[in-house]
């Protein structure tokens, strides 16, 4: 397959893709779309930023265009479940963009806002409903939504939904759907919980796996800095002040820490906004609008933003706190190196988070390069990592790679040199971890979203 035309999508879809400058499908799209056009269930595994949204939206819209039927009042023909309101909005916008030349109705529902407009949007029924599970069940229980006419179910970022504790909600929703339906499950990782869920929901599915689920994007250069808590803010400030940092996302573990970090950066003259589950929907939308436009240089976020924030020009991701769920590391750093660009991911690690670092390295199958030549390096934090630092500089390097990688005090902000290039809602990470036990590149690369 060399073009979207080879996939035999309907003319209105091809016209919309052409207007967007999309010509060549990404691997997940080329692998998934033919199966979906045949009506098969699918298990799609791919990293974030590889075009999963278009991989399911395009064949769904083709199906709707080929088979027009009257809407069922209060009912959707297609139901897409997403873990966060940001991702739900993004998916809804992608459907609308691809369907610009079709007769098409859609709605998006999520919590944190009044339900009046959402109820009204569903009154006559819609082609595609994109929803967060909690608000969806609430409106179903109130009698405002009827799921009895759903033809296609999509679970996007399924692993994230399970991490956030939505597994019971998902099963309650599935119990309300017709058994004779097409089911699509897309995920960036494949833990046991996802394989179990797929086995219970999918019928003879086609599996499309683009990359190993826990590998990191090839173009992301990664490093870790060992820094004590009292020096983290200054270390972060030094990093974001680099002229190489065009637009950055900083991840914290706690909501109140995100607020503090954003306030600190603003006081230092860095345009920064915080985004997390305690922010109102309006505040979150304003923060994202400023970030996309470039008015906000740094977005400070909890893991609510680790999925579905689709901003191509993110040059750097900084982990102010390491995530305590290893899979979240891959999702976080996947916010950079999108649409074919290079990107940097630098993590600040204190002594208390060393065990999390080891879990992350085990998950991605390699040690993170250690950047040592900076004034905030903590020997205490790095002493018990159970491995020597793999990168150093200026005579301080250990482990036989003194000149092998990220050198110079300014390099962690974007001037790394040498061999340091590795292969590759409403709940925050610290809450999700306790409950977890349980897109297309533009121009020559394909339609990307999520």
TrEMBL record:
Coiled coil: none annotated. Residues 33-208 form the Helicase ATP-binding domain. This is DEAD/DEAH box helicase. Residues 391-412 have a biased composition (Gly residues). The keyword ATP-binding applies. SMART domains: DEXDc, HELICc. Keywords: ATP-binding, Helicase, Hydrolase, Nucleotide-binding. Residues 219-382 form the Helicase C-terminal domain. Gene3D superfamilies: P-loop containing nucleotide triphosphate hydrolases. Belongs to the DEAD box helicase family. Residues 435-450 have a biased composition (Low complexity). Residues 379-450 are annotated as: Disordered. GO terms for molecular function: helicase activity. A motif (Q motif) lies at residues 2-30. It comes from the Bacteria. Residues 2-30 form the DEAD-box RNA helicase Q domain.
């Amino acid at each position: 397959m060399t073009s979207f035309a080879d996939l035999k999508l309907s003319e209105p879809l091809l016209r919309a893709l052409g207007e967007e400058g999309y010509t060549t499908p990404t691997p997940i799209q080329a692998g998934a779309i033919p199966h979906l056009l045949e009506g098969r269930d699918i298990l799609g595994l791919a990293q974030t930023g590889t075009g999963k949204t278009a991989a399911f939206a395009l064949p769904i819209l083709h199906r709707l265009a080929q088979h027009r039927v009257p809407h069922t009042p209060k009912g959707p023909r297609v139901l897409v479940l997403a873990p966060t309101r940001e991702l739900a909005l993004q998916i809804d916008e992608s459907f609308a963009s691809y369907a610009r030349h079709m007769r098409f109705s859609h709605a998006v529902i999520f919590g944190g806002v009044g339900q009046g407009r959402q109820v009204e949007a569903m009154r006559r029924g819609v082609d595609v409903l994109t929803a967060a599970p909690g608000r969806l069940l609430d409106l179903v229980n109130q009698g405002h939504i009827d799921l009895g006419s759903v033809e296609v179910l999509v679970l996007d970022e399924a692993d994230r939904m399970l991490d956030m504790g939505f597994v019971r909600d998902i099963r309650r929703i599935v119990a309300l759907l017709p058994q004779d339906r097409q089911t699509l499950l897309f995920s960036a990782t494949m833990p046991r919980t996802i394989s179990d869920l797929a086995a219970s929901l999918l019928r003879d599915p086609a599996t499309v796996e683009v990359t190993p689920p826990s590998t990191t994007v090839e173009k992301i250069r990664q490093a870790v800095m060992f820094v004590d808590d009292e020096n983290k803010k200054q270390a972060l400030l030094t990093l974001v002040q680099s002229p190489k940092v065009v637009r950055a996302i900083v991840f914290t573990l706690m909501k109140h820490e995100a607020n503090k970090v954003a306030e600190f950066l603003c006081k230092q003259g860095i345009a920064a906004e915080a985004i997390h589950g305690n922010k109102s929907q309006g505040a979150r939308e304003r923060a994202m609008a400023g970030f996309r436009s470039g008015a906000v240089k740094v977005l400070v976020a909890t893991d609510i933003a680790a999925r579905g924030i689709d901003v191509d020009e993110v040059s750097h991701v900084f982990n102010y706190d390491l995530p305590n769920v290893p899979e979240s590391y891959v999702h976080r750093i996947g916010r950079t190196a999108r649409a074919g660009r290079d990107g940097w991911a630098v993590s600040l690690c204190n002594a208390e988070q060393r065990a999390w670092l080891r879990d992350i390295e085990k998950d991605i199958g390699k040690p993170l390069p250690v950047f040592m030549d900076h004034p905030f390096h903590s020997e205490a934090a790095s002493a018990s990592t159970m491995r020597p630092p793999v990168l150093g500089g200026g005579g301080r390097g250990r482990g036989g790679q003194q000149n092998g990688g990220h050198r110079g005090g300014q390099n962690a902000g974007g001037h790394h040199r040498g061999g340091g290039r590795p292969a590759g809602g409403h709940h925050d990470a610290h809450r999700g971890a306790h409950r977890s036990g349980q897109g297309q590149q533009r121009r020559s690369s394909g339609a990307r979203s999520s």
